[in-house]
Amino acid sequence: MKNVGIISVGCYLPKRVLTNFDLEKMVDTSDEWITTRTGIKERRIANKDERNSALAVHAAKDALKRAHLDPAKVELIVVATISPDSNFPSVSCLVQKALGAKKAAAFDIGAACSGFLYALTTAKQYVQNGLYKNALVIASEKITNLVDWADRNTCVLFGDGAGACVLAPVAGNRGIIADYLHAQGEFGELMEVVVDNSVEPLTQEKHKVHKPYLVMQGKELFKVAVNSMADAVEIAVQKAKLKLSDIDCVVPHQANDRIISAVAWKLNIPKEKIFVNIDKYGNMSAASIAVALYEAIEQKKIKRGNNVVLVTFGAGLVSAANVVRW
Ligand code: ACO
To answer: 153 CA distance to ligand 1 centroid (A)?
Structure first.
């Protein structure tokens, strides 16, 4: 079996910034509440005409450029998203077209905030078993489309963005050395997108179309999130035949800085080893870890030879972790 590694990471963030002070004018909230409860100071919001696939294409181009990989040579494109342009075509097919990656197979994965790691582990298998020589993995979200902007419980938490990486065989003992994917459907009601499923398909009557929007039981989700992320780290590290003290950097899903701190405390990992950028972007669902990984590399928090843990939880409830030897 080949070792498969992340040979490049790219990202794209919409230009428009929405600060906590902007939100103070929209709902009954305050910068102080949002900062102390979540760690978020601002987030990016895609424009009306800036679709999810456009964010994905920007991030993909960045990752391909850094990998010196011609789009025509990409063999697989996997996009993690829960906020696609539409039900179909898939975002991955839209990306394939925009890149001119004519040779590539393409599909989307929906695992909410765990999507990037689900996509990473899935794509890795294809490269590892030799079916494809490389894979372009993208996590892209225009999740602010699903937000009820009158609900202060949720609208302060989310932002848009995209990250991407290229996977290819790597030499030596480097690469993605452990994977852990988990699901706990019994916690599904803690975070849902409300849709109107009551429409009778055969009727000719016009039905009021309800825009889907997300609802969340924040307090309950918080507790499950901490336990799921801590368990995921421990299991993945064990699978990599390492100890927690061998880990140089943890890149967690950025849902709430207090969740991240609680996971660090539970695992007895110093907070300095944990990469946090939630203050600038909020929760970008699947894109959060991809963008955080990009920034951790840019800021030299991750260096060649480091043992890196990527860990996440998301609606479903789905959790996941990977150990990567950089
Ligand atoms: N501004 C001001 N007050 C607010 C706001 C707001 N934006 N939102 C809620 N409040 C109020 C509540 O109404 C409540 O008031 P009450 O006591 O009068 O009823 C009070 O603040 C306290 O609310 P709590 O729910 O106790 O606040 P908590 O400390 O639990 O923080 C939070 C809320 C930030 C949502 C936290 O529970 C959390 O982060 N949970 C996990 C969320 C999460 O991870 N979501 C994404 C996961 S899945 C995915 O990423 C796709």
So the answer is: 5
Q: Distance (Å, rounded) from C-alpha 56 to C-alpha 46?
A: 12
Instruction: Give residue 156 CA to ligand 1 midpoint distance, Å.
Output: 9
| pLDDT tens column, 134-172 | 999 999 999 999 999 999 999 999 999 999 999 999 998
Q: Output the pLDDT for position 298.
A: 97
Nearest CA to 78 out of 102, 60, 51 is that of 60
Q: What is the pLDDT of residues 219-230, one digit of tens each?
A: 999 999 999 999
Q: How far is the CA of 216 from the centre of ligand 1 (A)?
A: 9
Residues of the chain with CATH 3.40.47.10: 4-173, 177-199+208-325
β-pair partners for 166:
8, 136
Q: Whose CA is nearest to atom 2 of ligand 1?
A: 29
Q: Which residues line ligand 1 (CB under 6 A)?
A: 29, 33-34, 37-38, 112-113, 152-153, 156, 191, 216, 218-219, 221-222, 225, 255-256, 259, 283, 285, 314-315
**Fold designation for 4-173:** Peroxisomal Thiolase; Chain A, domain 1 (3.40.47)
Q: Tokens 């000719």 correspond to what residue?
A: 204
User: Which residues carry out catalysis?
Assistant: 113, 253, 283
State the distance from the centre of ligand 1 to the C-alpha of 219, rounded, in angstroms: 7
Q: How far apart are CA 11 and CA 306, in angstroms?
A: 21
Closest residue (by CA) to atom 15 of ligand 1? 153
Nearest Cα residue to 146 out of 194, 76, 200, 197:
194
Alpha helices per DSSP H over the chain: 20-24, 31-38, 52-67, 91-99, 115-128, 152-155, 218-239, 257-267, 278-281, 287-298
Fold of 177-199+208-325: Peroxisomal Thiolase; Chain A, domain 1 (3.40.47)
